[in-house]
From TrEMBL:
Its EC number is 5.1.3.15. Substrate binds at R55, Q80, R85. This is Glucose-6-phosphate 1-epimerase. GO terms for molecular function: carbohydrate binding; glucose-6-phosphate 1-epimerase activity. Catalyzes the interconversion between the alpha and beta anomers from at least three hexose 6-phosphate sugars (Glc6P, Gal6P, and Man6P). The active site is at H153, E258. PANTHER family: APOSPORY-ASSOCIATED PROTEIN C-RELATED, GLUCOSE-6-PHOSPHATE 1-EPIMERASE. Pfam families: Aldose_epim (PF01263).
């Protein structure tokens, strides 16, 4: 029980058998086991040698989501989804180590020199019997405002994505449909099924609670606070087969329900803190 440190990874363990593995590279959660079952998808073709972002688990997206914008220059120079998913993070502290829960705080290293904004970024991962909570704390430690986007890119393992049902998306939400070439749409309410490539940035989700029924008696509840938007992504074969680090048919074994602040850039004032929380529960 407790917290094991194994060089590149930290493993949280509970007496119930629940565990979570976090790579220091990107502070990426790569495994979450509940009731003897792996709940995170991790592609068998993912590189785990710190050369490329990990394909699976929960990569952290910051300070941009998606491809870089054309300006300002320090943002235009960034790679897709920003730099923190490919940085070596540090274990800062063990916050809690008890029978009912284990919690650790990780901190990111300084940003690349061209990203000339002062901030601290810490990530608190808490494991309880059926839940995994991941909280991002961003503090503006400089004297000027700066802007960012942030998102927790979870890959939730499911037996067959074509059998899942997603609910909790409020009727009337606007979404940016990347799979449809970047069109805006309005969600009509009800259930969302994955029958084709899906890449939707749902703007301002009032419920902040999305349920995934895996069609085989289990699933997930994804709750969030601080984050307002949620991207729902599954590439299916059409785009999945073009991803070098995606295993064959991997696209059928996960769904990404990604809480974030991504519909626009959020401005953070000098001295201000942003807290984005994700709570994943196994149903
Ligand atoms: O291949 P990456 O950089 O990890 O991104 C994966 C996907 O991440 C999703 O969040 C985006 O909405 C998709 O458009 C993107 O393809």
């Amino acid at each position: 029980m407790g917290v094991e440190q194994n060089g590149k990874t930290i493993v949280l363990k509970l007496a119930s058998g629940a565990s979570a593995e976090i790579y220091l590279f990107g502070a990426t959660v790569t495994s979450w086991i509940v009731d003897g079952k792996e709940r995170m998808f991790l592609s068998s073709k993912s590189s785990l040698d710190s050369t490329k972002a990990i394909r699976g688990g929960i990569p952290i997206v910051f300070p941009i989501f998606g491809p870089p914008p054309s300006s300002p220059p320090e943002y235009a120079a960034l790679k897709q989804h920003g730099f923190v998913r490919t940085q070596d993070w540090t274990l800062d502290s063990i916050i809690m180590d008890r029978d009912e829960g284990v919690s650790v705080r990780l901190t990111s290293p300084p940003p690349p020199s061209e990203f000339n904004h002062k901030f601290t970024l810490s990530y608190v991962v808490t494991l309880t019997k059926h839940q995994l909570s991941t909280d991002v704390h961003i503090n503006n430690t400089g004297n000027e405002d700066f802007i960012f986007q942030v998102l927790l890119h979870n890959y939730l393992a499911v037996p067959d994505v074509k059998k899942i049902t997603i609910t909790g998306l409020d009727k009337g939400i606007e979404f940016f449909d990347k799979a449809a070439g970047g069109k805006m749409g309005t969600w009509q309410g009800g259930e969302l099924k994955i029958t084709q490539e899906t890449d939707r940035v749902m703007w301002k989700v009032p419920s902040q609670e999305i349920k995934v029924d895996d069609g085989e008696g289990s699933g997930f509840l994804v709750k969030f606070r601080g984050f307002e938007d949620c991207t729902i992504w599954n590439p299916q074969e059409k785009s999945g087969k073009n991803m070098a680090d995606m295993e064959e048919n991997g696209w059928d074994r996960y769904i990404c329900i990604e809480p974030g602040y991504v519909r626009e850039f959020k401005s953070i004032k000098a001295g201000e803190e942003f807290l984005g929380q994700q709570v994943l529960t196994v149903l």
